[in-house]
Design a protein that fits this description.
The structure holds two protein chains of two kinds. By secondary structure, chain A is mainly alpha-helical. Chain A has two domains: about 5-45; about 65-225, no CATH class. Chain A is about 60% helix and about 0% strand. Chain A is built from eight helices and one strand; from the N terminus they run αβααααααα. Chain B has helices at about 1-15, 15-20, 30-35, 55-60, 60-80, 90-100, 105-130, 140-165, 170-180, 205-210, 215-250, and one strand spanning about 50. The N and C termini of chain B lie far apart (about 50 Å). By secondary structure, chain B is mainly alpha-helical. The chains are: A mainly alpha, B mainly alpha. β1 (about 15-20) of chain A pairs antiparallel with β1 (about 50) of chain B. The complex binds protoporphyrin IX containing FE. Protoporphyrin IX containing FE binds near residues 59, 135 and 252 of chain B.
Chain lengths: ~240, ~260
């Protein structure tokens, strides 16, 4: 057991305690009953979807992944499949796992608090909301051929042809990436020197790297929507 | 009335009764503690918990509810297995049977489906709550990592279940999902650097998922086995670890 755990246990000795039975168990019991009732009542009134028999010869249009993956399917518009479907989720998973090890701020352990962990809470909430916004767009605003429709519009097949996409020339793309990541890493290190020092070299790089990658998704979406940019960098093997 | 009380007293004094229920019910601290530790289901809990931990507005019950919904899914899922055969010629018909023929089949199938969605939602919000209360901080870092694995497994559980009705919805959703697998760098036949290892459509990661080059009978069987056996066992094992760690990391987090 680590020192922390021991400290925590010593600390718990001081905190006021109540018996699990009935204080906790009763609440769990009520919560379980409520959830069961809600589930059963909802299921009684709203049927689970069941479409026609699967038919490999007749693709659904649009074919949508289950809703919790629609955020990833949505960024398929802006990225090649290997990024949207594989690299992005992998980085999200690894990034989530890294959180406890890169957040060295001891404050706000065991209670809701915002001010002492502004950066952490803001970034996490941003990511969480971003993920769900993409899901909402993918679920309610994408029709045939993944064309955009507002939820109140009826889907049709004669949507305007999307404007032609252009890619940045490679020299500009490399330059833009270097500027983005170079300045993205350096500027905060200088501007928030205390924060960077507290994290240390490795943690700082991982934190900012993950942060810049997340914002990068947003930047690419913005570039596409505003300037019809298709790729920032093209190589014979992959495009970004 | 007295007679009933007399019988109850006699009953609770019998050897059989005492061999099953090992503590009395008078309201003493000893009995309250025993109530927790001598009950296999309740002994997941500590005998006493910090007062703030039982406040609904601390955990919002989210971790507990995720677990409870998992149990609900296990029960309804096993019942569904009585009626469902993962065979492309039968699966869809079994669904129709469940909806129209099997007594309470519609409720069974529908509640299993909605509970699956509910679990995805509660697990995401459990993660959010743990983040916002900073409960992943030392000494609980590793339990957060276990949690992330559970999050991924919850998605995969739901995803593998999606194909089982063998309807257009599931079929094309799995198509979208597994086609992304085909784009995996190096390991998917459409991904960058696939040539390096000689990865083709019939030996890549998508092929391993589907058991073939297209979604067909082997894919349905694979989805079924992962959904009903593989992933629940892995997720169940990780949940045991997760709960164990909650206790071993000093109980639920709280203000220091
Ligand atoms: C199948 C999924 C999961 C189940 C059944 C589950 C269950 C639980 C339960 C019952 C608790 C006790 C406190 C509470 O109810 O909030 C808990 C605590 C915890 N969970 Fe989970 N959990 C799951 C997924 C996750 C995920 C996705 C994360 C984070 C990424 C996570 C991280 C934690 C941590 C760090 C604690 C300790 C919190 C504290 O001490 O305040 N769990 N979990």
């Amino acid at each position: 057991m680590s020192n922390h755990a021991e400290a925590q246990i010593a600390n718990n000795k001081k905190t006021e305690k109540v018996f699990s039975w009935p204080n906790l168990v009763a609440k769990e019991f009520i919560a379980a009953i409520l959830v069961t009732v809600v589930l059963l009542v909802y299921s009684y009134y709203v049927d689970a979807p069941l479409r026609e028999l699967a038919n490999p010869g007749e693709p659904e249009n649009p074919a949508k992944a289950p809703w919790y993956f629609l955020g990833l399917q949505e960024i398929l518009v802006y990225f090649d499949p290997w990024i949207a479907g594989v690299v992005v989720p992998s980085i999200i998973i690894m990034g989530l796992m890294a959180i406890p090890y890169i957040d060295v701020n001891p404050k706000g352990n065991g209670g809701y608090c915002f001010w002492d962990r502004r950066f952490a809470v803001t970034v996490f909430l941003f990511g969480f909301i971003f993920w769900y916004l993409l899901i909402i767009v993918g679920t309610y605003m994408r029709g045939p051929f993944w064309a955009f429709f507002w939820p109140w519009e009826t889907w049709s097949f004669d949507f305007p042809t999307p404007p032609p996409l252009i890619s940045l020339p490679n020299w500009l793309g490399i330059f833009a990436l270097l500027i983005y990541f170079g300045f993205g890493m350096l500027v905060p290190a200088v501007a928030f020197w205390k924060f960077a020092k507290q994290l240390g070299f490795i943690r700082y790089n991982i934190t900012m790297g993950l942060f810049l990658l997340m914002m990068g998704v947003l930047v690419k979406i913005a570039l596409r929507l505003m300037f019809n940019i298709k790729y920032i960098l093209q190589t014979p093997w992959f495009n970004i | 009335m007295n007679l009933i009380l007399y019988f109850i007293r006699k009953l609770t004094e019998t050897e059989v009764w005492k061999s099953v229920f090992r503590h009395g019910y008078t309201d003493t601290s000893r009995n309250r503690a025993l109530q927790t530790i001598s009950n296999v289901w309740l002994h997941l809990h500590p005998v006493k918990v910090p007062k703030h931990a039982v406040k609904i507005r601390f955990t919002w019950c989210l971790g507990g509810l995720t677990f409870f919904i998992f149990l609900f899914l296990t029960v309804t899922g096993v019942l569904l297995m009585f009626y469902y055969v993962p065979d492309v010629n039968r699966a869809y018909a079994d669904m129709i049977d469940l909806m129209y023929v099997v007594p309470l089949g519609r409720l069974l199938r529908t509640s299993h489906r909605w509970a699956g969605h509910a679990m995805v939602i509660t697990v995401c919000f459990h993660m959010l709550r743990v983040f916002l209360t900073g409960s992943y901080k030392a000494p609980r870092q590793f339990n957060w990592v276990l949690g992330v694995l559970l999050l991924v497994l919850t998605f995969l559980l739901s995803f593998t279940g999606y194909l089982l009705p063998w309807d257009q919805l599931g079929y094309w959703a799995i198509m979208v999902g597994t086609n992304m697998g085909a784009a995996t760098p190096v390991m998917g036949y459409q991904g960058p650097f696939a040539e390096l290892l000689g990865v083709k459509i019939n030996n890549d990661i998508r092929f391993a998922l589907l058991g073939g080059t297209q979604i067909d009978a082997p894919s349905l069987l694979r989805a079924y086995v992962w959904h009903c056996i593989g992933i629940p066992i892995i997720a169940g094992a990780l949940m045991i670890l997760h709960f164990w760690r909650v206790r071993k990391d000093g109980g639920i987090s709280g203000p220091l």
